[in-house]
Amino acid sequence: MSSARPATSHYQRSVADYWNAEKNPVNLRLGDVDGLYHHHYGIGDPDWSVLEGPEEGREERVIAELHRLESAQAEFLLKHLGQISPEDRVLDAGCGRGGSSILTNLVHGCYVDGISISDTQVDFANKQAAKRGVSDKVQFHLKNMLDTGFETGAYQAIWNNESTMYVELGLLFAEHARQLRRGGRYVTITGCYNDAYGLPSRAVSQINAHYICDIHPRSFYFREMAANRLVPIEVVDLTADTIPYWEMRAKVPSLVTGIEDAFLEAYKNGSFQYLLIAADRV
């Protein structure tokens, strides 16, 4: 576990400040359900019946259902990591509070490094790993995903789950290609703007402003992967699968962040897509 502050740009320091201060209920209360704090969105068909029945306990039922959907998203990503043995190392780049990293260890029994430029996230995630008794195999580090300092060829799999919009893709994929062993797998689930729509829509620009990020066009992912020896083997459009999550989340006043309408507008007008891309390092 590294505590040295990573080299970052002024922009990245502003992002770190944002996440160091972030205590959004939608990230914390969903993770409280089972101790897996995912920090990403959900996919799948919701059980809308959780909105019915007595008002008492309704919010807790909806929170549990939203967490089930975000866990389904993490599990879907994990299924695309390829063959992972208990002796393999994998890297969660932009790990948030560590839920996906811990889940990966629970599923595969492998070694997991999670990295974030947020002190708060790294400290929180390491405490969760200790609480679950997996600190011997799951560790979280304060590092810049563009320059981790980890060994070349050390990883069988690397993923970004909704974190690529905070960095330049060419720099990111070059670092991932360096760290992956040949034949290793890279997976991302990300929101990207639809090149066919044109320039970023108003709703996409609102999302950028809300999260202090820069959503990339879809084409940039494939261009920069090709330039860095990452060959896509599967692309899954999850846009339709994530809309119900946002529709349900918008119905819980205590979880509303003010960005829900922008996501729904962007997904529904075709300007924004939610994709899984899996690629092999060649």
Could you walk me through the main structural features you see in this protein, from its secondary elements to its overall organization?
With 282 residues, the chain is of the alpha/beta class. It has one domain: 3-Layer(aba) Sandwich (Rossmann fold), CATH 3.40.50. It contains ten helices and seven strands. The chain has helices spanning 10-21, 25-31, 58-78, 99-108, 119-131, 169-179, 202-211, 218-227, 239-249, 260-269, and strands spanning 89-93, 111-116, 138-142, 155-161, 180-193, 230-237, 272-281. It has a seven-stranded mixed β-sheet, with helices on both faces. It is globular. The model has no long low-confidence stretch (mean pLDDT 95).
Poorly predicted parts:
none
Mean pLDDT across every amino acid position? 95
- Tally of contiguous helical segments: 10
Helicity range of the residues?
40-55%
Radius of gyration: 18 Å
Q: What's the total number of strands?
A: 7
**How does the major sheet shape up?**
7 strands, mixed
